Amino acid sequence: MHQESTQPVQPVQPHAAPKPQRLPPGAEHPSLLAAMFRPGTPMLWVPSSYFAMALTYMMLTSVTSIMFKNLGMDNGKAAEYASYLILAYTIKPLFAPFVEMYRTKKFFVLCTQVIVGVGFAGVALAMSLPNYMVVMVFLFGLLSLVGATQDIASDGVYVTSLDSRAQSLFCGIQSLSWNVGPIVASGGMVYLSGWLHTHYFGHPAGEFGPQWIESWRVIFFIVAAIIIVSAIWHARVMPDGAKAENAPKSVGEAGFILWDSFVTFFQKRDVWLMVGFAFLFRLSIGLLEKIGPFFMVDPVAKGGLGLSNEMLGLVYGTYGLIAVLVGSLLGGIFVSRRGLPATLFILCCAVNIPNVTFLLMSMYQPESLWVISAGVAIEKFFYGFGSVGFMIYLMQQLAPGKYSTTHYAFGTGLMGLCMMVTGVVSGHLQQALGYVHYFWLVMAATIPSFLVTWFAPFHHKD
User: Fold this and answer.
1) What is the value of pTM for the model shown?
2) Closest C-alpha among 273, 247, 229 to residue 118
3) Which Pfam families match (predicted)?
4) How far apart are CA 378 and CA 279, in angstroms?
5) Which CATH superfamily is domain 32-454 in?
6) Would you say residue 280 has pLDDT above 90?
7) N or C, which end of the chain is more exposed by having fewer CB within 10 Å?
C-alpha cells in the first residue's frame, strides 16, 4: 500500500527549540560509521523505534483492510472501516502539546508500545468470540489513538535527545527504518497470512470468510510479540528525551498554544491555495489506496486479478514498496538539482498519470505475474518519485513561521484527512461502478491535483 507518512510528523515545538543532548563522547569523529555505531549511539534505538511506529501504523491502517476482506467483508465496508483508523493519526497535532506536559517522552513511548502489543494480542484472542468483528473494530480504534501517541513521543525523543548534527546524521536511518515497517507489514505479514491459510491450515486460497481467522490470529500474535520486545529493548537503550523550554505547564497553556498555532496558520499569505494543495495533491491516490489490493485479490469473475495473499504480499507489499523507496530517492535527487518551483508540476504528473496502469490491468486482466508486478512497480515508483515534491512543498512553503513544526503537521494532517475521506467512500464507489469504471474515476480525480499544483504559491526561497 501507499505509505502515507514517510517522513514522521514531529511533535509540537512552540516558540523556542529544546536543548538536545549531543552525540556520545567521541561521536563527533569525522568517520560516519564510527559515529553511528559507537557504544551508546542512537543507532541502538532510532531504527527500532521508527520501525515499531511504522509497523503499528501499517497494521492498523492498511493491513486491516486486507484482513477484513479475507474475513468476508465486502469492499465498501472493508475500505471504510480501515480508513476510519487513519483519523487518530490525522488529528495527532491536536493532542501533541498535552503529551509534552507529563513525565518523559520515553515513558510515553514505553507505555504506548506495551499497550499496542497487548492490544494486538487482545485482537488475536477476540477472534474466538461470537461477535469478534465488533470487538476487533473497537480495539483497532483504541489502538489507533495509542499508536498516534507513540508517534508523537518517539518523534519527541528523537528531536530532543539529539543535537542538530546528530539529527542530520541519523535522518536517513530514521526514514529507512520507517520504510522497513510497510515492507514487513504489507509484504511479510500479508504473505505469511496467505501461506498459513493454505499450507498450514489447509484452506482454499480463493475463498473469503471466517476460515481466515486462524491465520490472522497467528499474525496478530506475532506483531504483538515484536512490539512488546521493542518496548523491552527501548526500556534499556532509549534516552528519556528532553522537555522543550517552552513546553506547556497546564492544560490551559497547551490549549492557548494550539489555538495560537491555528490562528497564525490561517494568517499565512495564500493559505487556502496551500490548504487546497495539501488536501488535493493525492486525491487520486486516496481513491486507489484501499481498492488496489482488493483488485489484486478479487476473483477474475468479479473483475479482479485473482491473486492469493502470498502473491499480494510479494507484488503489492514488497516489490511495490521497494519501487516506492527507489522512486523517492531519485525524486529527491531530481528536486535537489532543479529546484522545486521548476519541478513541482512534473512531480504531480509522476504521481497521477501512472495510475493508468490499474485501469489497463482492469481492462485486460493479465494472468502473467510479471506483467502484474511490472504494472504495480511502475505506479509505485512514480508515486514515490512525485511524492517527494509534496513533502518538500509543505516544508518550504507551508511550514515556515512561528510554529513551523506544528504547521508542517497541519499540512500532513490535511493529506491524511484526504486519504481517510477518499478511503471511506472508495469501496462503496467501486462496488457501484465495477473495477473498470472505478479506475476511470481515479483518472478523472487527477484533474484537481493538476489544478492545485499549477496554482500552488511560492512565497519562500527554494
Assistant:
1) 0.84
2) 229
3) MFS_1
4) 24
5) MFS general substrate transporter like domains (1.20.1250.20)
6) yes
7) C
